[in-house]
């Protein structure tokens, strides 16, 4: 689900939910004047197309294949790299969009694994019956300061530079796509979101909201509402993915 929020005039976030492929993507466009919306749309379309085209594992690989990674990790990493190139190609044809770019967080479920790839500060969270954990590392200035012990996480949330990202798709720099694989229990869920959610709603509140919800749709709608209630300063996108069967969401253990 995606929402424009309370401040922005346009929604520059995009999402993809291709359940038949086990593919879920959130992209947060950058650049303003509708260019960010173009960039994030390019990202979700390019990733979706490449993942669909590689279901049978038979095609010429467009980027270096890393033998140390699984097929699905290579697949998702290549899809993100291709989306970076696609934005750059669009900018060459439309120089008025030279400032556009996008973050991305993508999830591919298959072979008993959850494969994640991300660039920028769009996040993936792991939720279970006991709590919430951020499993992606923000590519942002404040995240670097926290890692170096210069800022605390609480200080980073309100720092004037909290929206400064150090990596984005389409910015023309050297791209480092972070990929990881998770073994997940059926009771666990993954939440993909743009910073319009994570920047407005603290992690514990995110978990509380999901824990109280009975369905995925109810949880996502409540998350969007919470971000709007907190000010809705940016576009808000959230995708909640369950790896088990059924609609049951993780609930806090009762003692």
Brief summary:
With 255 residues, this protein is α+β, with helices and mostly antiparallel strands.
Distance between the termini: 34 Å
Mean pLDDT: 90
Largest β-sheet summary: 6 strands, antiparallel
Q: Label the overall shape.
A: globular
Which structural category do the helix and sheet elements fall into? Answer: alpha+beta
Number of helices: 7
Structure description:
Strand 5 and strand 6 (113-119) form a beta hairpin. Helix 1 (35-53) packs antiparallel against helix 2 (71-93) and helix 6 (203-212) runs antiparallel to helix 7. This protein has one domain (2-242): Phosphatase 2c, domain 1 (4-Layer Sandwich), CATH 3.60.40.10. The strands form two sheets. Strands 2, 3, 4, 5, 6 and 9 form a six-stranded antiparallel beta sheet that branches. It is α+β, with helices and mostly antiparallel strands and 255 residues long. The protein contains seven helices and eleven strands. The radius of gyration is 18 Å and the shape is globular.
